[in-house]
Amino acid sequence: MTEEAPTYQIETTSQDGITHIALRGSFSLAGLTPLHHRLDAALAQGPVTLDLSGVTRLDTSAAWAIVTAEAHGAPLTVTGSSEDAATLLATVRKALPKPDSQNQKPKTLVDRIEGIGRAVAKSASFATELLGYFGIFLHRLARSLRHPGEFRMTALVHHCQEVGLKAVPIVALMSFLIGVVLAFQGSTQLRQFGAEVFVVDLIAVSVLRELGILLTAIIVAGRTASAFTAAIGSMKMREEIDAMRTLGIDPATALFVPRILALLFMLPILGLIANLSGLIGGALMSWIDLGISPGMFRTRLIENTGIWHLAVGMIKAPFFALIIGVVGCHAGMQVGSNAESLGQKTSDAVVTAIFAVIVIDAVFSVFFAQVGV
Amino acid sequence: MTDMPKETVIRLRGVRNQFGSHVVHDGLDLDVYRGEVLGVVGGSGTGKSVLLRTIAGLQIPKAGEVDVLGTDVRTASENERQMLERRWGVMFQDGALFSSLNVRENVEVPMRAVKGLDPDLRRQMADLKISLSGLPFLAGDKFPSELSGGMRKRAGLARALALDPEILFLDEPTAGLDPIGASAFDILIRQLSQTMGLTVFLVTHDLDTLHATCDRIAVLAEKKVLVTGTMREMLDVDHPWVHEYFHGPRARAASDAIPAKKDP
Q: What value does the mean pLDDT of chain B take?
């Protein structure tokens, strides 16, 4: 570790009120702090002469220390500098950064209040923008219906596969486990009242009305909103979107319509799969834990659970699909020109989509409670 | 540039680079001397950037010796490599700045490895390097995405200069710059190499840069360094590609525009 040992020496002697500092050896960034402090300390006491004749290598940092010391207006005389060192000093002197007068003002209370105001205005405009994207989607969809030639069937099928088919395993497994958990937890509680058989109603109502579709939407928001943002965002980053515009291809028709439409078709199907596998999981656990045979589970399910429970769940699916798709596409278009913003927008999209799904679900719950279904 | 015996800082012997079955370099020899500005030229696909990456240790050659400042890059230990990396700076084609950091923080990155340097001094040193690279003071607070291509190159140069390296590698320093910006950059490199005693290894396509900045030129062709020499010597080389390169219409325009560099 030769570099760790000091490659330089700073010798200070004092005579007649004048401090002599002699530098020897090779100066680099590692020696800047001691050199800077020595010079400052010596200059505080009076005039200084600086002898550079023993220097083997002077780098810009050492030159900077000398030049800034001069700039403080203290009487500093530099002697014995070689030709190279003199040129370096001159270059650094010329390049010395001059801070502009635009110094940052400290934050006042008014600035902070203004910051809050801006944040509120930003979230309001975010909501408007989402609505705007929804409008664009509807408009382009209507145009595609009038001119079926413009519609991108291949893209739609591709996205249906990505969004729907590939999500089936995870959605089915998740929902199955939820069914198992519900049956297990429900049975422990209901057994206390000897009402084990009601576990069927418990599972059916909670899976069909809420959990099946809600958890499916959350999983889809996680995997699909992020995929939309990343795909559209990286196209935006590489100016592919701009290229599309110059070629007369409308990005909204080409990118948004197939993606959102695919979600619109696929989310209800995924929801149905989730419902089914949730019920299967619940039935299996009821059988193992409570001895309710699958046949009995089925009979009770058909007799006691109204079709409206299923409908209440499925009605929400297209709304979830729309918000997930719109949020994902919108976030993709907000990506700037650097990789950082791509990552940030992708995670923003997921958080926003999941949040929006839960808010919509809550609104629907209140609505259905009011109309009494 | 003086009468002192030339000290070799980069020494390549018999370097062979290949990707799959595609051989880029075979038996390549090259010497770079202290304090000179060496320009590497060659047609597209002759492996100019690969050569730069080989010397900077980013690409391990299949065979041959790569000796930089007395250390063999191929066999250097982790420790030796770190020592070496502090003694060279690399400027990539588009600056390769870290996009999550502003320009000043980018320049400070290599300085963080220096022990005992207090943050305030480090900041001021970064400002000095930014200013030495010809950027305005306020550029330090900007993020790479807010800079133009030319400014990104300058910021990349500032980062490469952060530790006052002995060797500076430049990959296409003037590509994509407007002619005024490009010639300003040429002058900047020349000035820096003189005042800071830098050895500069630059890969370029730009004939004006060769005229204005380089002491010596190395021509890559036929998988090796075909010939090295000054601009004047290049004009007399009797190889079809080299002749075409230095006598083509663009070459003539460049040599007319800039009076041939004074021989030292």
A: 83
